[in-house]
Amino acid sequence: MSMKLYKRKDRKNLYIRHKGKLVSLGTPKKGWADQLLEESQAKQLGVYRVPRKRVDAFIEPYLTHCKKFNKATTIDDKERTLNAFKQQAGNPWLRQVNKKIVESFLDSRISARSKQQISPDRYNSERQILNNFFTYLIGEHVFKENPCRGIEKKKIVKNKAKISLSYTQEAQLDKWLRVRMKYH
Q1: Assigned domain for 64 exists
Q2: What is the enclosing helix (H) or strand (E) of 126?
Q3: Residue 91 backbone class (left: φ over 0; alpha: ψ -120 to 50; beta: rest)
Q4: 12: how many CB neighbours lie within 10 A of its CB?
Q5: How many C-beta atoms lie closer than 10 Å to residue 58's C-beta?
C-alpha cells in the first residue's frame, strides 16, 4: 500500500492517511515530511534506512527504552557515556559513525578522578554501553551495522600477586593477636 502526503486547507502541517484517518506529521515542510513518510514506510517493511539525523536525536528515546529494564544508576551511567561520546565526536550525523570514531572515543577517555586513562573495566563498560546503543538503533531499523562489533574488550587482571608478610611482621601480628585474645 502506497502512502502519500495530504494538505488540509485549514491547517499548515502535512498529513498522511493511517488506518483511514489523517495523521499530522507535525511539519509544514515537504522535504521533512517526505523523509518522515519514507522512514515510516521503511519501518513498516522492516527495511534499513539511515535517517539524516545526528546521534543526539536518538539518545533520549534510547534512555527512555532502557528505563524499562535498568536501574536509575545504570541509566545515569549510560547517559553520561553517550553524552561524552556525542560531545567528543562532535555530535556526528548517524551515517558518519564508524568503528574508527568509536575506538578513538574509547581510547581517549580520561578518568575524572585520577586524570589518567580509564581502567580496562571502565573501558569495557563504556564499550558495552555504546554496543547496546547501536544494537537498539539496528532494532529500530535506522542503523545497519554495529561499529562496536570488531572492538575487542580489554583484559582485566583480577588475580594480583599475593602479598606475604615478612617474618618480623608475622611475629608482630602474632603478638598483637595473642594480646587481644587474652581480653576476649
Answers
A1: yes
A2: helix 120-139
A3: left
A4: 9
A5: 21
Please check the confidence at residue 80 and state whether its pLDDT lies above 80.
yes
How far apart are the C-alpha atoms of 151 and 103, rounded to whole Å?
A: 7
Q: Is residue 159 part of a domain?
A: no
Contact 48, 145 (CB under 8 A): no
pLDDT of res. 44? 67
User: What's the CATH number where 86 sits?
Assistant: 1.10.150
Query: Helices 99-108 & 120-139, crossing angle to 10 degrees?
Result: 150
pLDDT value of residue 50: 59
157: in domain: no
DSSP label of 154: P
DSSP string, 62-103: HHHHHTTTS-HHHHHHHHHHHHHHHHHHTS-BGGG--HHHHH
**78 close to 99: Cβ distance less than 8 angstroms:** no
Average pLDDT over residues 39-61: 74
Count the domains in the chain: 2
Residues of the domain holding 16: 5-45
Report yes or no on 165 lying in a domain.
no
